[in-house]
Amino acid sequence: xxxxxxxxxxxxxxxxxxxxxxxxxxxxxxxxxxxxxxxxxxxxxxxxxxxxxxxxxxxxxxxxxxxxxxxxxxxxxxxxxxxxxxxxxxxxxxxxxxxxxxxxxxxxxxxxxxxxxxxxxxxxxxxxxxxxxxxxxxxxxxxxxxxxxxxxxxxxxxxxxxxxxxxxxxxxxxxxxxxxxxxxxxxxxxxxxxxxxxxxxxxxxxxxxxxxxxxxxxxxxxxxxxxxxxxxxxxxxxxxxxxxxx
Length: 246
Hints:
Elements: H1 3-14, H2 20-43, E1 55-59, H3 65-75, H4 85-91, E2 98-106, E3 110-117, E4 120-124, E5 130-133, E6 138-141, E7 151-152, H5 164-174, H6 178-181, E8 184-190, E9 194-199, E10 204-208, H7 213-224, E11 234-236, E12 244-245
Parallel strand pairs: 1-3, 7-8, 10-11
Antiparallel strand pairs: 2-3, 4-5, 5-6, 8-9, 9-10, 11-12
């Protein structure tokens, strides 16, 4: 063998691939290390103070201060990596004003809780005053009529939800567009016209069934904005594509 060939053979031996036994041993060590890291994460780190929630942001429209306080207390100290969502939801499970929560954690110590609030759609003059949401949920009892909330003519609910007639009126009131919200004085249900909402000035909006309330309110707004409408005592919206003023 020439000197050059011997030198090349030596280089090949130095760069030869490791044996299968050496590969297997290295792989086993890597797996054991990965398992140890996973165990440390699962059993310690994800529930440790290094990832405990310290900064709670409660967002949403008109969130009651008491609800924000309960959520802040419930979330503080939980883990951003192993969040106990049930504990947060349980803190406001008895709050009828809370329709839902959207929860996002921010590693390592933050959380944002966005609250979907049920606003009061109407107020029933019974049992000291009852505020109800658009879905019929009883929000509060024994309260005066809140500012800007129309009255619903009817009886007190039997339980935590409004009865059928009051629920139909609440559904319509809950769909009231912003520009008209302050003009609605009262809503009621009668046999002939279904849900009737009365505006300031005495104009009746006759909705019929509460279905398609959004579309019917848009039709009402269009009729009321018509400069040619000089006098009317009612607007029939039961067929919103063909509203009738009379």
